User: What shape does this take?
Amino acid sequence: MLKIPKELGFYMPAEWGKHSAVWLAWPYDNTTFPDMIPEIEKIYCQIIKSFEGNEKVNLIVLNIKAKNRIEILLKNFGVDLSNVIFFIENYADVWVRDYTPITLLNKKNKNLAFVKWEYNAYGKKDDPYFADLLKDNNVFDNIINSSNSEVFKPEVVLEGGAIESNGEETLMATEQCLLNPNRNKWLDKGRTEIYLKAYLGVENIIWLKEGLVNDHTDGHIDEIARFVSRDTIVCAYENNKKDPNFSILNDNFKILKNSKNQNGDKFKIIKLPMPHMNYNNGEKAPVSYTNFYIGNSIILMPIFNDPNDKKATKIIQSLFKNHKIVEIDCSKIIYGGGGLHCITMQQPEA
Assistant: This one.
């Protein structure tokens, strides 16, 4: 008989819940970060250092040789290696948010469980740039199979960055991503909701339309809107009407203003300004301040050497008064197509 997580009392917790660790995968691919791996490695050292006294770091590396080299880099940066747990796995890229199983908590007994969604490289397997990412679908097989936790496998494509939970039965996502035929062409909106509700323990789904311009993920929610509490949402908002993202973000803001939670109450919606950055080739980069990570006692906050950096950081600090803001320059990381939330995945504590 098929077991359904929701029927067993499991649900997807909010990111601000207690974590036992955070997952990261060490950067090594020059295709993802062309001619900038040393710079990206320094950023990873900074990120890992910031988690000391906050939460353990589960770090995925390619092999023993890589592990030994990375240990030296971290040690030279002043990182306490006792806070880092290494996992040797064959992986292609650093976007663990998207290929890590979603951890569920049980309302009755506080047990953990995993939902192993399928990862198909953002539906771009025919693109040579993305094809190698398909191997990341299996990175966590050994890890979850060796755990004592139950594992659910709905056989549906879904990336972690595509969904956002308030921990109380409300989920956010975009139609552009979840209803894209390059993910699950056999699922319409109604059947997609059935899977989300059954496997993530939610009742209420807020559907935004689109994500940022030039986002290769086809509109991941974590680049445009985030829960910061059970009843509050921050959303990316563009004030310049001539900006390509203006109409997209304005439409999303209107939807959020009229959205209701699982109890039928409206959310408090707070606008976050937008950073602005172009790649070296002149193309608009899909940068946003909503791609922050909520740790146990820190917020990893993306900055871009933009005039709006301080304004966005101030807003986030006001919402997480008991957290330390750790600013991370993401103007290099974005060349890989993602940000801080994309390279991290929280491991909820039972």
